[in-house]
Design brief:
This is Thiol peroxidase. InterPro entries: Redoxin, Thioredoxin-like_sf, Thioredoxin_domain, TPX, Tpx_CS, Tpx_Peroxidase_subfamily. GO terms for molecular function: thioredoxin peroxidase activity. By secondary structure, this protein is α/β, with parallel strands linked by helices. About 20% of the residues lie in helices and about 25% in strands. It has a five-stranded mixed beta sheet. A two-stranded antiparallel ribbon has the order 1-2. The chain has a two-stranded antiparallel sheet with strand order 3-4. Strand 1 and strand 2 form a beta hairpin. The radius of gyration is 14 Å and the shape is globular.
């Protein structure tokens, strides 16, 4: 298991993010239409998996906006945001913000948090996801993996984009 900080307090996660060089674990998440989306749906494409607790927090909203902006200039990159939010909240946010370049997906009926080691196991946010980024290449291999040390901090966008070669 890994540890992150939440309001200065150490909080354990359910495991560890997939390591660079590993095959990214398959996932099945829920989209705005309540349909299933799998990692394998993006086979042959580069994917940024941006993981966070809730779209209704400032840092999560900022990271979604930032990735939306960054990928607009790079149409070959797919960004998938993952949180425990219901798809309705994600849809509302994207509509209000004009977010069109990311796939906002919910982990609410999946094992994603366990499979990626990102479920917070204790503290006031127990059960939601920690913040991190996993970048997957066209062959499904992890080429970048970042668990953000402090849940309220933004991820290293530059490092994720550099892993993609942009």
């Amino acid at each position: 298991m890994a540890q992150v900080l939440l309001r200065g307090n150490p909080i354990n996660t359910s495991g560890d993010l997939p390591a660079v060089g590993a095959k990214a674990p398959e996932f099945t998440l829920v989209n705005a239409q309540l349909g299933e989306v799998k990692l394998s749906d993006f086979a042959g494409k580069k994917v940024v998996v941006s993981i966070f607790p809730s779209i209704d927090t400032p840092t999560c909203a900022t990271s979604t906006r930032k990735f939306n902006q960054e990928v607009a200039a790079h149409p070959g990159i797919n960004v998938v945001t993952v949180s425990a939010d219901l798809p309705f909240a994600l849809t509302r946010f994207c509509a209000a913000e004009g977010i069109e370049n990311v796939h906002t997906l919910s982990s609410f009926r999946s094992t994603f948090g366990q499979d990626y080691g990102m479920t917070l196991t204790e503290g006031p946010l127990a059960g939601v996801l920690a913040r991190g980024v996993v970048v997957v290449d066209e062959s499904g291999q992890v080429i970048h993996s970042e668990l953000v040390n402090n849940v309220s901090d933004e991820p290293d966008y530059a490092a994720a984009l550099k892993a993609l070669g942009v």
